[in-house]
Amino acid sequence: MNQTSLATTDKDNGPVKRPSHSLQTPELSAPAHQLEGDLLIEELASDAERGLDSEEAARRLSQYGPNLLRETGHQPWYQLLLHQFSDLMIVVLFVAAALAWYLGDVRGAIVLMAIILINAAIGLYQEFHAEQLLERLRSMIRSQAVALRDGEMLELDAADLVPGDIVTIEEGGAVPADLRLLSSNELATNDFMLTGESLPQEKDAAAEPAPDAGLAEQDNLAFMGTTVARGSATGVVIATGMASTIGEIAEIGQGIKRDRSPLQLEMNALARILTRMAGLIALALFLINLLLRSEDFADLPALVNASLLFAIGVAAACVPQGLPAQITVALSLGVGRLARENAVVKRLSSVETLGCTTVICSDKTGTITSNQMTIVSAWADGIDYDISGRGYAPQGQVLREGRALEPAELEGLQLFFQLGLLAGNGRTHEPDADHRDWYAMGDPTEAAFMPLAFKAGLQPEQCLEDSELIAELAFDSQRKRMVMVRRVGGRAVAYMKGATPSVLEACSQIVRGQEVVPLDDNMGDAITARMQDFSAQSLRVIALAYRELPGDQQDYTIEKTERDFVFAGLVAMLDPPREGVEDALKAVYRARMRLFMLTGDDPVTAAAIAERIGMPDGRVITGNELRDMPDAELRDALGARSVILSRVSPKEKYRVVEQLKALGEVVAVTGDGVNDTLSLKRADIGVAMGKQGSEVAKEAAEIVLTDDDFSTLVIAVQEGRTIYQNLKSVILSSITSNIGELSCVCTGFVGAAVGLPIPLTAVQILSIDLVGEMLPLMALTFDPPDRTLMEQAPRRQGSHIINRKSLVDIVAMGVLMGLGGYFSFYMVLLSGGSTGSAQAAAFLGIVLIQYVNILSRRTVDSIFSGYLIANGKLTGSIAFSFLLVAAITSWPGLSTWFGFEALRLADWLWPVSAALVFLAIFEIKKRIL
Ligand code: ADP
Ligand code: MG
Asked: Quick one: where's region Disordered (predicted)?
């Protein structure tokens, strides 16, 4: 099967060059852009009317493989391994190990090598894990395609497309495979990914590119991986998956970026500083050591060796080897956890930014609401109708004052009940393999008119067939209306639907008592009043109008066509808020963030929905007001707790995001539509809906919610905060102990001046890192959020973990830790212990204090709470580490290897009491704060 050949190409290194014989595309008599559509369909053994039949499609699927892009150019394992050793800190440790070995300190070299290898293993595991994770994330963002199969249009998984399929594409959607266009309407695609051209590329089924036309000129083709900027088209699939143009030339489209986050940058910088400082410290220690032992000058080479070894060991212990790797591990673990919660993060660093979010700007339709449109009411010729039935199923009736209308009564309403259908592209389809219920294809707002026609006793398919499409003036969020011109019995009729004010603008007449009369201001007011009644019930209102066009009209531009319409009536759609939004919103406010609603919809509808989901009362600003508002005033308005912006265009959404950012807010924008892409891109974090959202929105976003659930965003914010919090504890604890070790050594020099032995040897210091803290620090990144995390104000973006305040804190605590170690050492000496056992006590003291340090830094509460054991990995690794440490310090067989003499039970008193004092200091500090 083709699968295997795809698998082998996966391992290729060069993403560009791939042997073409390994992939199959159907044989064609000429390049696809040179073939007429009809001929091409014939050569592909397809059918323009019926598409492929499902058996043939299944056969082709197994022949050509699924329509998926796979990643090429994986790094082989040995490159990944080598990569681990390219790190400056690891190099430093390597040199230290080699030098130690050379100078005869075998134990020091072994401990150093163990540290290096463990770090490399972690790094390697992490890179493998990251690769797999990215692969999985990519496959989570699935897209749908609309194709003709067995004579029917239906929606299927884009991965199931095969050459020969007839598909339709429309604005906001992705081009699901390489297509030869068969018909097109004002089509333009975003080909940036293929050609680097940032402006939409106009496409036309009738174009005749030259035989040697390049990709950018093959205007009768549309390419997989591009998206539809405007217009619509049908086309026949000529290549899928890795055989498509993008599969052949480019790195994979759904590029998941692995850029460095601010925290990673801060840590890399810090690591560099500390590594350099370690160098200086080594030099200083070396000189001090030489001077202190000047009486040994007789044997100079031996003295130099010993001093050098000591200096290297201590300096190596100061290098924060694990830190940068740990941050990457923690971030990618977070990305993995988020994926399980249905949030696909396309960029590692956005996990961090998420935690800083202060304002969420959310689109209404499709984000806060479910975008499942059901027309529930209609108003035509001054009469109200109720429509029964829910969802897209055709069952239901048109009722007037609670009584279902007879077919005879519906007779005169035929035009009204099919108008919306004729003015749109949306269709519905019965349940099939991929869908349990009737479902919408295309824009749900448009699809909702199909069940309406059914319920009014019409045959929607027949209506559409009887009125051939001549021209389409597509919907855009600026005009907020759309028109379709159709030929009906020899006449050209234009059908319009849109937002009520926009439609009224284009109307000069109205249907009154079954007759067409001029539209006057009173009637306009009545329409607006009726619309507001609907809106107040949180319904989405669409106005309908039509116009018979002059017989001699040739071209159908907006200017010539969109005027003198006859107003026909209103329909009202139910689009209920998504489940769980109310609770999610409470969590948003608890976490001291704000939510603004940005919608193209009516202010009254927006306010009604806002009330239903529990948004606090706030100002409603309309697009018109916004346009006249100077920046300063807008910024003032945006300071409020809750703001609704209604009837805004994409540009105005963008402006709001921009002004919020100017106010220093960290803005997350959630959206699903084409009209949201600008603001999604401008946001600090763009969040798109994965299921119902348009492909362009998903592409513009950094995070895709695959369950379309607004509350997933709150979980994502929590994850972002948790990760940052955990990394903060890791970093601070880790540096504290380095300072602790160093200050213990320095105190040792003071002691040496009065003739005391040194408290810790180089091997012993390195062992503190290895057995005492490596595992617990790693486990720390798995901490669950602490009680208060989602009740605090978001942290400031750009704040550093190492700042003046935290520096004072870690230096103070570090020095205390060092003194605690030296105290233990000194007390054992004083009570008659040997140098070896005093050193074991110093070692034990520092490790125990480090446990306290780690456990205290992870919560703002006392460590004695349920949270103490909330992280099983941490509890386990501290227990394991403690066993090792106890064995090293107290079991004679092992302790001699580390240069210790085993501790007596009574010697434990001093390290334990030092740790308790340290604990008390932390607890008191927390109480006071
Ligand atoms: P939102 O920003 O909440 O997603 P939209 O931009 O989708 O809102 O819609 C704005 C307004 O445009 C709606 O209130 C509706 O009246 C109108 N509208 C939306 N979609 C269509 C459509 N396909 N055809 C006609 N009018 C539409
Ligand atoms: Mg929307």
From this structure: 1-30
d(CA 267, CA 270): 5
**Gap between the Cα atoms of 227 and 187, Å rounded:** 11
**All residues at 6 or more sequence positions from 179 whose CB lies less than 8 Å from its CB, including other chains:** 167, 169, 221, 222, 223, 233, 235, 236, 237, 238
Q: What percent of the chain has pLDDT over 70?
A: 95
Q: Which domains does the chain have, with CATH numbers?
A: 32-64+141-254 (2.70.150.10), 262-334+717-928 (1.20.1110.10), 337-369+579-711 (3.40.50.1000), 374-574 (3.40.1110.10)
**Distance from Cα 676 to the centre of ligand 2, integer Å:** 7
Ligand 1 site, residue 569, Cβ cutoff 6 A: no
pTM above 0.85, yes or no: no
C-beta 479 within 6 A of ligand 1: no
Give the residue, 496 or 329, on which the prediction is more confident.
Answer: 496
- Which ligand number lies closest to the CA of residue 478? 1
677: region left, alpha or beta (phi > 0 left; psi from -120 to 50 alpha): alpha
The Cα–Cα gap between 328 and 265 comes to: 11
State both tokens at 808: 């004072």
For residue 672, which atom of ligand 1 is closest to its CA? 4
pLDDT in tens, 634-666: 999 999 999 999 999 888 999 999 999 999 999
For the chain, the residue count is 929
Which of 194-198, 235-239, 446-450, 621-625 bottoms out in mean pLDDT, i.e. has the lowest? 194-198
CB 108 near ligand 1, within 6 Å: no
Q: How confident is the model at residue 4 (pLDDT cuts 50, 70, 90)?
A: very low
Give the active site residues. 363
Mean pLDDT of 139-145: 81
